[in-house]
Amino acid sequence: MNNPQYRGRFAPSPTGPLHFGSLVTALASFLEARSQGGQWFIRVEDLDPLREPPEATGQILASLDAHGLLPDEPVRFQSRRHDAYQDAIERLLGNGYAYRCQCSRKELHANDGRHPHHCRSRKTIDDDRPYAIRFALEDEDSHWQDQLLGPQHQTVKAELDDPVILRKEGFYAYQLAVVVDDINQGITDVVRGSDLLDMTAQQQQIYRALGSCPPRWLHIPVILNEQGQKLSKQTHAPALNDEKPVSNLFRALVALGQNPPTHLATGSLESLLEWGRKNWQRGAIHLTSR
Ligand code: GLU
User: Fold this and answer.
1) pTM score
2) Catalytic machinery residues
C-alpha cells in the first residue's frame, strides 16, 4: 500500500516522560505513515503549563530520538501557536459556532449539568466574571469508520457537554488546538490511543465548523498495567529507559500484535525499525491490550 500523500503525527501532551504506552502509540503512528511511504510529524501539545513539568518536553523528544522515531519536519509546539487558536475562536464566535459561558460549576450542577437555556444565546456578558468559550455542539448521530475498530456510532447530545475551547484561566483547550493544528499541518490520518475515541465525533463537528474535512482516524487499544489500568502518569507508569531502545521497540511491536523475528531483539535499531516498516500489519493489532 503506497500513499505518499499520507501525513501522520504523534502529538504528546508533555505531562511527564514517555512511558511504554505512549511509545506504542508513537510507534503505531510512525509505522502506519512509513509503511505507506507517507510523512510523519511530532507535535508537542503544551497548552497547559500548570500540568506540565518543565523538563517533560525535553525528555519526550530525547526519548523519541533515542528510539529512532525521527520526524520529517521540525517539531511543532502548540505553545507557539496561540495566534492561530485565537483566530479560530474569533471565526467560530463570528459564525455562531461558539459562545461565551460564565456558568459556575454550581449553576451547571443545579441544572442537571446542562447549560441554562440562556447561556448559549446570551448576547452580553458580565464584565466582572471570568468566562470560558465553548463550542456549540449540534445534536447529531455521528457514523464514521475507524481504520482499525471499524464502524463507529456516537450520539452527540447538544448542550450537555459543549466542549470548552478557551478556558476561564485563559488557556486554549485541547479540543480546539488539536483540530486547528491537524488542519494547518494537512494531517490526513490520525493514529492515537482509544482513550480519545469518544472525542472524535465532537472533533468532526469542529473540523466542519472551521470549513475543513475531517481526516481518517485509527484508534489503538490502550496498554494496561497488571491492575488493568491505562499506563499513564496517574497510574505511575515508569519512564522508558532510553538506553534500551531496541528492547523497548521490540516489546512495543509485540504489544501491537506484530511478530518480529527474535534475533532482532538484540540487533540494531535501524534493522528493527526497517523490519517494522516492511512488515507492518495494522490488522494484527489486538483489539484488547495488556
Ligand atoms: N495530546 C493528546 C494526548 O497526549 C493526544 C492528541 C491526539 O492524538 O489527538 O493525549
Assistant:
1) 0.93
2) 233
